[in-house]
Design brief:
mainly alpha; five-stranded mixed β-sheet; elongated
């Protein structure tokens, strides 16, 4: 009798044995079918040793209740007296609900687990073929398949075979199943079987002898007509047989399905014929195949059908596979394949993806296959379709570090074991780690984690995934460093040839130079060399992600040579997570940013500061520049200090632009391209303004001391006044002065001209810093007019002589330096000109349109493609800006929002005022932003300004990468540019020309 309030001893024992629902378990143990064994302590202990004791007990009761009366005693007697059978049967029942269902439907199949002979421990293909021999239709085949699968699962969960052996047995069972399915299909259509020869080539995990419990079985079919049969009719017969084979395996029957047979890896995929002749296969692979197809063929294995035809196929395609690394587009294809494809995984599932998620199985498999393709052309020991065997061969040959290979080997085995046990539970194709606590508990216990199964499982899984994530890229690069550093005598290393092959495959155009740089950086026993050996494997991967890996590595060597003796440089890269990746992106994105950095390498420190890439305020910059100018002894030193600030801040701006455009592993690329453009334009314009202010202060101090005889202001016009300067833009300005009280006007004019000449001289002195060119050609009368005028002279000119184009040029006029009051009065003077009351008259509108048409026909450079010229081309900057400016001059008198020097703000204001429809405004904005980004990209990549796309392929690819296009999609970039600007031109025709 149980005392009230106390648990029964059975309940407590069940709880201690691992049952999560002891009450339900007690009721199951009371089932009549288990009456003969329920008191046997061996049974309860055995149930407690399974992955899920509750599931195992339920499966056992169902199996016992399904037994014919004369068979039940034999089951129960064997269960308590034969430990191997007990462990196998209960192990399967506790790990697989699906196989428990199978045993309940086919209650005598448990006898397949009774034998425990040596051959039974490791059956081969012939054993599975015998197991399927009596299956003559799809239903029988499924039952026989499950019976064989039962024996594999039993050996797996009991630890008789390891994860690699399990995968190999599953592949053998799949091979036997394909042969049985072809036998059934041939028996159903003997005429077709006689008319052709058909070979089935296994691909993927089946071909690699590393199949999952539930997976698509990838195949390719090769067919030939039988002697005396027309080739067309023979291939049709083979196609019917192949289609029937696929249905036999894939279709759902009363016994369910086996697995889908997937033939989409064949030439042309699902669009190509299901069966081809051998010659047709070869013609396709020799002419049309892509690199990924040769990667897939690494695992090709003839498994069923005509053995001679299958062997001929393997012999014919094998040389093509191992020559793939010599193909013209191999590097570009590899760089595309190296970028993880996780876009199709729902965001909520990425962290539970065993196969495709970060640190998943695909990372290991891809890395191993890529290294096989690169080095297998000269080393036949690498020609294995099995991932773990290939990894072992790579380590033995020195292509992968032994320690790295060992860690990857362990991680891959653990992740595959997780995948196997997840799929075994319900025999469903999935790679997602479950979220349910009970499922995680069963999974952890099935892997031998018994103390805290859920916590231990999550910890082990995260640890192994972290290993894969960390080593995935280093796997390619660490042996390169071992090859040049040669620190461990006697260890097998990459030969120089193999190292060069690998660098070439990863996008390095000059492998020999790259190896020299690596040797210079990583050789020796110094602390710096040791840190470099830690950093470089990751940096090399980031360089390889760019359009010019060679330049990235060379620039890194230059920076390291310049800063190598400073105590903080390598420590910054090692310890500040973002600094190293930011530096790699900046150094490999083009010439401008590295050139700026080389002139002052200490600016690297900006890349490790979370706030280091944020633009500084105008006030802070102006204060720093004027303070530096005030401390200088000579005007040359003063402006050198100002230009030094400009150079540092230009580097800050270019670095932020590159990192925002490329993105990093922790921070995606900036999606708002307009915001990027605005930040660059604003930052460069502010820099130019404070540099001019510093040069003005230096010029005044050197010639006149503290006070200039005339008030003096610099007015920014064009892109400068619009806060839209690019990296390569000149500074368009107007100069205005006003004599101080009591100063002769001629003396004042001479003083103003002296200061301007001195400013221009100082800003163009040859130094290590980029020059700043001041252009005053937009002044009244252009180059024929005086360089500087008084405010009253401007007023007189504009009142009497001003032309429409000059009023248009003043739309972007804004004071940038000098006397703020004078600059403000200049703006008051010109506002009525640029924002005329009642807007422009029709004559003025016609004049602007005529000038624009003339500019289009005369100013476009000879030979330039008008569809790709960012400034004067169709739908480019000029088109958009003139359209917006015409709207400003017609409507700004009545719409205050249009009174701005900035193109995008004026465009938004025009839309807000109902002057431009929403879609047209978006089209113009998109084209203007894109054209501006292209100009910025050209300057970043080439180090010199340009208004059209570069002609050199590598520069063009770098521009594409900056704009967010993947490797090998330059054509797509140019097509997009033409499409976007063509749409913009259509809007310009309507809004500007009134078409």
């Amino acid at each position: 009798m149980t005392v009230p309030g106390r648990r029964s001893s059975t309940f407590i024992r069940l709880l201690r044995s691992g049952f999560t629902d002891p009450s339900a378990a007690a009721r199951l143990l009371d089932a009549d079918a288990l009456a003969a064994v329920r008191a046997d302590p061996v049974l309860l202990d055995a149930l407690g040793a399974t992955a899920d004791p509750d599931l195992a007990l339920l499966g056992l009761v169902r199996l016992a209740e399904a037994q014919p009366p004369d068979e039940l005693p034999g089951l129960l007697d064997t269960l308590v007296s034969a430990k191997p059978l007990r462990d196998r049967l209960l192990g399967v029942l506790g790990a697989s609900e699906a196989l428990g269902d199978h045993l309940a439907r086919h209650p005598l199949d448990w006898q397949a687990l009774v034998t425990y002979e040596a051959a039974d421990l490791h059956p081969g293909l012939p054993d599975f073929e015998r197991g399927l021999a009596d299956a003559h239709d799809p239903v029988q085949l499924r039952v026989s398949y499950r019976r064989c699968l039962l024996s594999i699962a039993a050996r797996d969960v009991c630890g008789t075979i390891d994860v690699a052996e399990t995968a190999a047995e599953l592949a053998d069972l799949a091979t036997a199943t394909l042969r049985a399915a072809l036998r059934i299909a041939s028996a159903a259509a003997p005429a077709d079987a006689a008319a052709c020869r058909l070979a089935v080539i296994a691909m993927g995990k089946c071909g690699g002898n590393e199949l999952n419990y539930v997976s698509d079985v990838d195949v390719i079919f090769v067919g030939e007509a039988a002697p005396g049969t027309d080739e067309g009719k023979g291939i049709q017969a083979a196609t019917r047989l192949a289609s029937h084979l696929m249905r036999i395996c894939s279709e759902t029957t009363v016994e369910g399905t086996i697995w889908p047979v997937d033939a989409n890896l064949r030439p042309e995929g699902r669009n190509g014929p299901l069966v081809r002749t051998l010659s047709s296969h070869l013609a396709y692979y020799q002419r049309w195949a892509k690199t990924w197809e040769f990667q897939a063929l690494l695992k090709a294995r003839a498994v069923a059908g005509d053995p001679d035809l299958g062997a001929q196929y393997i012999a014919a395609i094998s040389p093509l596979v191992w020559q793939a690394a010599e193909r013209e587009n191999f590097v570009a294809d590899v760089q595309k394949m190296r970028r993880r494809v996780v876009d199709n995984i729902p965001a909520a599932q990425v962290d539970r993806e065993l196969k495709l998620g970060p640190g998943g199985l695909r990372d290991v498999e891809f890395a191993v296959q890529l290294l096989q393709l690169v080095h297998g052309r000269s080393d036949a020991t690498l020609h294995s379709g099995t991932t773990l065997d290939a990894l072992h061969a790579l380590a033995a040959g020195g292509y992968v570090g032994r320690a790295d290979a060992a860690q990857l080997h362990d991680a891959y085995r653990f992740l595959r074991a997780m995948e196997h046990r997840i799929q075994l539970y319900r025999l469903r194709r999935t790679h997602l780690v479950p979220e349910d606590e009970n499922d995680l508990r069963r999974l952890g216990r099935s892997l031998g984690l018994r103390t805290e199964p859920v916590a231990e499982l999550n910890k082990a899984w995260r640890r192994h995934a972290s290993v894969v994530r960390r080593l995935h890229e280093k796997l390619f690069y660490r042996p390169l460093l071992d090859a040049v550093a040669q620190l461990t005598p006697g260890e097998t290393r990459l030969s120089p040839r193999a190292a060069g092959q690998r660098l070439e495959a990863l996008g390095y155009a000059d492998p020999a130079a790259a190896l020299r740089h690596l040797e210079a950086l990583a050789s020796g026993v110094t602390r710096a060399a040791a840190i470099q050996r830690t950093l470089l494997p990751v940096l090399l991967g980031w360089f390889a992600d760019s359009a010019d890996p060679d330049a990235g590595l060379l620039n890194f060597r230059k920076v390291s040579d310049a800063l190598g003796r400073t105590p903080w440089y390598l420590r910054l890269l090692r310890d500040e997570g973002a600094a190293a990746e930011n530096l790699a992106r900046v150094l490999s994105a083009g010439r401008l940013a590295p050139d700026l950095l080389m002139r002052a390498p200490e600016a690297v420190a900006l890349l490790g500061d979370p706030e280091g890439l944020q633009p500084r305020t105008h006030e802070a910059l102006l204060q720093e520049v004027l303070a530096a100018v005030g401390r200088a002894d000579t005007p040359e030193a003063a402006v050198a200090a100002a230009r030094g600030v400009r150079r540092r801040e230009l580097f800050r701006t270019t670095a932020a632009d590159i990192i925002g455009s490329y993105g990093t592993e922790d921070s995606p690329a900036e999606e708002d391209h307009g915001a990027l453009v605005d930040r660059v334009g604003g930052a460069v314009s502010e820099l130019t303004a404070v540099t001019i202010a510093g040069a003005l202060r230096a010029a005044v101090q050197s010639h006149y001391g503290d006070t200039l005889p005339t008030r003096f202001a610099v007015i920014g016009v064009g892109r400068f006044g619009g806060h839209e300067l690019g990296y390569g833009s000149d500074a368009d300005v107007l100069f205005v002065h006003e004599p101080r009280e009591g100063v002769d006007e001629q003396e004042a004019a001479k003083a103003a001209q002296t200061v301007i000449a001195e400013m221009r001289r100082l800003l163009q002195l040859p130094t290590a810093d980029p020059p700043l060119l001041i252009d005053a050609d937009l002044r009244p009368e252009g180059r024929s007019g005086p360089l500087v005028r008084t405010l009253s002279s401007y007023a007189a000119y504009y009142r009497r002589w001003s032309l429409t184009w000059e009023s248009q040029a003043l739309l972007r006029a804004e004071p940038v330096a000098g006397d703020a009051d004078l600059g403000g009065r200049f703006i008051e003077l010109i506002d009525p000109l640029r924002y005329p009351m009642e807007g422009l008259g029709e004559d003025a509108v016609r004049e602007i349109r005529r000038l624009k048409a003339r500019m289009e026909s005369e100013r476009l450079p000879r030979g330039a493609d008008p569809t790709l010229h960012t400034k004067l081309g169709r739908g480019g900057l000029s088109d958009v800006e003139w359209t917006v400016q015409l709207i400003q001059m017609r409507h700004a008198w009545a719409e205050p929002g249009l009174r701005t020097t900035r193109t995008r703000r004026a465009l938004y204001a025009a839309h807000a005022a109902g002057l431009i429809p929403t879609e047209e405004a978006q089209i113009l904005d998109e084209a203007w932003v894109l054209a501006t980004r292209v100009r910025n990209a050209v300057m970043l990549v080439r180090g010199r300004a340009g208004d059209t796309f570069p002609s050199e392929a590598r520069d063009l690819a770098a521009v594409a990468r900056y704009l967010g296009y993947a490797e090998g999609t330059v054509g797509e970039m140019l097509d997009d540019y033409r499409r976007i600007t063509r749409r913009a031109r259509a809007v310009v025709e309507e809004l500007f020309y009134g078409a």
